[in-house]
Design brief:
The protein is an alpha+beta fold. The chain has 4 domains: 2-127, PAS domain (Beta-Lactamase, 2-Layer Sandwich); 132-307, Beta-Lactamase, CATH 3.30.450; 319-470, Reverse transcriptase/Diguanylate cyclase domain (Alpha-Beta Plaits); 489-732, EAL domain (TIM Barrel). 46% of the residues lie in helices and 23% in strands. It has an 8-stranded mixed beta barrel, surrounded by 4 helices. α14 (445-461) links the parallel β17 and β18. α5 (154-168) packs antiparallel against α9 (278-309), α11 (350-357) runs antiparallel to α12 (359-376) and α12 (359-376) runs antiparallel to α13. It is elongated, with a radius of gyration of 46 Å. The structure holds ligand C2E and magnesium ion (MG) (2 copies).
Amino acid sequence: MSKTRHSSNNDVQAMLLRALIDQVPDQLFAKDCESRFVVANEAAARAVGQSASHALIGKTDLDFYEESVAHTLLQQERAVMFEGLSFVDVEERSWDQSEREKWHIATKLPLRNGRGEVIGLVGCCRDITSRKREERLRAGEAAILECIAGSADIADVLDTLLRLVEVECSGISATVLLLDEEGRRLHSGCAPSLPHSWIHAVDGVVIGEGVGSCGTAAFRREPVIVTDIETDPLWEEFRDLIRPYGFMACWSWPIFAADGSVLGTTAMYCTEARGPTPTETRLAAFATHVAGIAIQRKKSDDRIRFLAQNDALTSLPNRFRLEPVINHAIRNAAMRQSEAAIVFVDIDGFKNVNDDLGHRAGDHVLRVIAERMLSVLDARETAARFGGDEFVVLLREAGLDNSVTLARVAALRAAVGAPIIIDGHTFHLTTSMGVAHYPRDGETPEVLIANAHAALFRAKELGRDNVQFFTIEMKLGLEGRLFRQEEMRRGLRHEEFILYYQPQVSLTTGLMIGVEALVRWQHPTLGLLAPGEFVALAEQTGLIVKLGDWVLRTACRQNKAWQEAGLPPLVVSVNVSARQFRERDWVARVAAALAESGLDPQWLELELTESLIMQDPRRAVTTMQELRDLGVQIAIDDFGTGYSNLSSLKTFPINRLKIDQSFIRNLPDDQGDSAITAAVIALGHQLGLSVIAEGVETREQMTFLQQKGCDDMQGYLYGRPMPVGDLQDMLRGS
Ligand code: C2E
Ligand code: MG
Ligand code: MG
């Protein structure tokens, strides 16, 4: 009875033990001294293709493995049992029945009886094939990423990648296709083991539904798994084409950029009609990911290279590319013993487009102009964007008497001048151009560009919308100007500019009511220069903005100082040039000058000319209104010399008219001037404006003005423009 219970206990234990070892995923086994299986678990049976473990008992590896493999294993086991070989955690590679590579990690130890004699061995073995593959992929990935980071050629990177994938998936041919810039066509990126003729046959296919696996995957933006090319409708069009190559299935995965756009596809061609195994799917995902990184890297490299040499807005070569491009043209011309022309192009009034319609419209205009210029050039000619609204065009031939250049330049002007419609408005742009010829006007890119620029400068001086060919006189003139310009910058830095003040008096009370600030340049070698000698240049070069700011701030500060010194309050008049007035933050600058000096705005008057206002009356009125809102006064200077139509005068938010001195000069003898002056005074009063006459030199002139009811006057009769100290003395009545 007890014996039965004992034996049934043993049975239960054996059963549990059996169940336990069969549960273990690793192969476990014991063998006798002849390497025959004594015990084996189910994992060990599965490893040799058997469904039950008892099928192994009494057998050796010779029964399950190819002879050479089995002999190696048997020798190994003998060495473990009889030669004391240590065999712990040894990694081994083998191939299964379907020639697939397998990796194991195995431990084999001698088995001893109670007396310590070796009676066999115990072993345990784990399949590490997938871990090995992962390791290899990771190592491969690291190597490939290193290549990508090192800016290796994309073809090499993809080749390494796909070869890695193909080693891992036997019977598969992998490929990466790249989508072109327009996102329309697929081109071969790499296909290490696909037949050339097939790659060639499908290169450049337009993506879409039913365009094989890849064309469809790129189009649908999702993986397309075709398990049987013979029957799948997606392959309809290509079926006959691929048949000779023996591929039965094709699986394709789209490659995405970080922004979600499709860069291309990864595909696997398979000689069996089936879908991908999980391993193949994982490998495809891996390849797709790495290919995505490589392609993006290449694209950004290309973009950087492009941007370094081209203008991002118009895609034209930029000024850095210009020199090599001109050099190339020069060499060609020299070889053919012909000429070449460099045309410097400037879009007239482009600033207004930007200011009035915004920078987006400005960008649009520049792009359109670039396209139009290219449309009249032939393949060997180039247009480059020099910067802003300046372009440089390179023409191949000049012809006798510049005849060819003239015709080409006319074509360029016509192209650019064609109407442009922006926001429903039609614009006609004009251009100023300067031309320099190789070799006549220079033999290096540097000289040619400089000379074409000098000619452009002249074209602008002549009122824009015209073409000038370079002459040596231009160069001298320009050099003189450039020198002056540098001088002026230096002068500003060294505070060589000073303000003179000219009194303004009331014709009714005879009291000084204001002063006009007039700038002078105390030049270290040339002496005191009047505005006539430098203001025009300052306007052309834009230096007037800096100079004008200085005048404004100085005048405000000076006026405040007089008031603080207890002198009777005066209005200080400051001249404003068109260039200053156009500055976007002009009103803010005026406010800043007032705030900084502490001057009450009512004691500042800004003198604008009619021509300044008429350049863009709508904008001018807005700006004037903003200035009036600040509390400053506005006068129209040199009134009568411009073309403002008198009816628009009443819409201007101004306080005062300043009759130009040319009308005053011949008073009262000249009947015409007398009539005009009287009319302006009457008109001003009717509009509620005060009127001041400028350039009053004689008593007769003053009397005439008084009779006509003119409010104030300014002129040598009462006082010349004078330094601060002299004016102070005059104010103090000394
Ligand atoms: P404007 O604003 O019409 O200034 C009046 C000019 O007439 C001054 O010449 C002044 O010296 C001169 N003038 C005054 N009374 C008489 C007179 O009785 N007879 C004669 N023959 N001339 C007289 P100036 O100082 O040479 O200035 C010339 C122009 O330069 C100014 O004309 C003004 O347009 C410009 N300007 C002067 N200072 C500045 C400035 O700070 N900024 C700007 N943008 N322009 C200025
Ligand atoms: Mg003035
Ligand atoms: Mg004036």
